[in-house]
């Protein structure tokens, strides 16, 4: 079981800038919990995501000496990937490859064809620099734009990523469009069909639908889940109304019910939740 904590996703759409020192202290608290990966920041245009314009400064302040947690940074194009790859502390580069052409243009100002070319170049860059690429199939369960969506389309994208050798693919419910009826068949089909790919679930949800979504993904074989403490966040490029991330505390409650030992330091998790309350209280 791999749990990926996503403070980057929680912070990115907030209108008021969180001071660099506050971000850094919060991330350092999260690094003590024992998550597999921390999605900590992004190397994207500060005009697009002003909240994360200080990612390099935050990275410089992180204490990685007492943690096994690996760092993931989101990038929106090859230039951002090249910048992120210069930082040896970062293990993963994440790129949002959209099943929706409309959202690809909104999110990274590219066509799908351009994004796929960037994915190939990013994967090569990761192999040269000892990192791994995580491809997020955004709008992976449908979109609000009227663009075509079907399980076959998602499979076609996955086949392309598999041919490139991309090691990790996270199906992303960017606007909370998924249901158990779409989640379960996708994971059930893709996981056995692409044994060389590690599949993840990046689910956005509401307080009343989280359980059915995580249950569907878990029972279909997914063992990599993204979450954010408090269920805060969402993609500011996707819609005017943000649909929150999967709340980490809900994920942990579900896994406890299933008897799964996450290996997390729950005292440190409690401290991180207290820190989150302070970070996000006025935002």
Set out the fold topology.
Elements (H helix, E strand, L loop, with lengths): L1 E4 L1 H5 L8 H12 L5 E7 L11 H6 L9 E6 L2 H8 L4 E9 L2 H8 L3 H18 L2 E7 L12 H14 L3 E6 L6 H14 L4 E6 L6 H10 L4 E4 L20 H10 L8 H15 L3
Parallel strand pairs: 1-2, 1-8, 2-3, 3-4, 4-5, 5-6, 6-7
Protein name: Hydroxymethylglutaryl-CoA lyase
Family: Belongs to the HMG-CoA lyase family.
Organism: Hymenobacter ruricola
Structure description:
This protein has 283 residues and is α/β, with parallel strands linked by helices. It has a single domain, classed as TIM Barrel, CATH 3.20.20.70. The protein has helices at 7-11, 20-31, 55-60, 78-85, 101-108, 112-129, 151-164, 180-193, 210-219, 248-257, 266-280, and strands spanning 2-5, 37-43, 70-75, 90-98, 132-138, 168-173, 198-203, 224-227. The chain has an eight-stranded parallel beta sheet with strand order 7-6-5-4-3-2-1-8. InterPro entries: Aldolase_TIM, HMGL, PYR_CT. Pfam families: HMGL-like. It comes from Hymenobacter ruricola. This is Hydroxymethylglutaryl-CoA lyase.
Oligomer: single chain
Proportion of beta-strand residues: 15-25%
Mean pLDDT: 94
- Roughly how many Å apart are the termini? 32 Å
The total strand number stands at: 8
Integer tally of domains: 1
User: In one word, what is the shape?
Assistant: globular
CATH superfamily: Aldolase class I
CATH level-1 class:
Alpha Beta
Largest beta sheet: strand ordering: 7-6-5-4-3-2-1-8
The CATH level-2 architecture is identified as Alpha-Beta Barrel
Number of helices: 11
Helix fraction? 40-55%
Compute the CA-based radius of gyration: 17 Å
The name CATH uses for the topology is TIM Barrel
- The H/E string reads EHHEHEHEHHEHEHEHEHH
Low-confidence stretches: 236-242
Q: How can the largest sheet be summarized? A: 8 strands, parallel
């Amino acid at each position: 079981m791999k749990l990926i904590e996503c403070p980057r996703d929680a912070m990115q759409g907030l209108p008021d800038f969180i001071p660099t020192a506050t971000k850094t202290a919060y991330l350092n608290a999260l690094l003590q919990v024992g998550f597999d990966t921390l999605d900590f920041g992004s190397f994207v245009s500060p005009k697009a995501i002003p909240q994360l314009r200080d990612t390099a400064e935050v990275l410089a302040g992180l204490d990685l000496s007492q943690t096994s947690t690996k760092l993931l940074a989101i990038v929106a194009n090859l230039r951002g990937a090249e910048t992120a790859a210069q930082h040896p502390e970062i293990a993963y580069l994440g790129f949002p490859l959209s099943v929706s052409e409309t959202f690809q243009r909104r999110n990274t100002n590219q066509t799908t064809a351009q994004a796929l070319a960037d994915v190939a170049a990013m994967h090569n860059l990761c192999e040269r620099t000892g990192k791994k690429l995580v491809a997020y199939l955004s709008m992976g369960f449908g979109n609000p734009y009227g663009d075509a969506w079907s399980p076959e389309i998602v499979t076609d994208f996955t086949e392309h990523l598999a041919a490139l050798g991309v090691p990790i693919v996270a199906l992303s419910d960017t606007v909370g469009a998924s249901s158990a009826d779409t989640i379960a068949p996708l994971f059930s089909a893709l996981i056995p069909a692409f044994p060389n790919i590690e599949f993840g679930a990046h689910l956005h949800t509401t307080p009343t639908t989280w359980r059915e979504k995580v249950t569907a993904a878990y029972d279909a074989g997914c063992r990599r889940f993204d979450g954010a403490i408090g269920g805060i966040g969402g993609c500011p490029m996707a819609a005017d109304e943000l649909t929150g991330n999967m709340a980490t505390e809900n994920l942990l409650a579900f896994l406890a019910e299933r008897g799964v030992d996450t290996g997390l330091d729950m005292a440190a998790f409690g401290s991180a939740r207290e820190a989150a309350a302070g970070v996000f209280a006025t935002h």
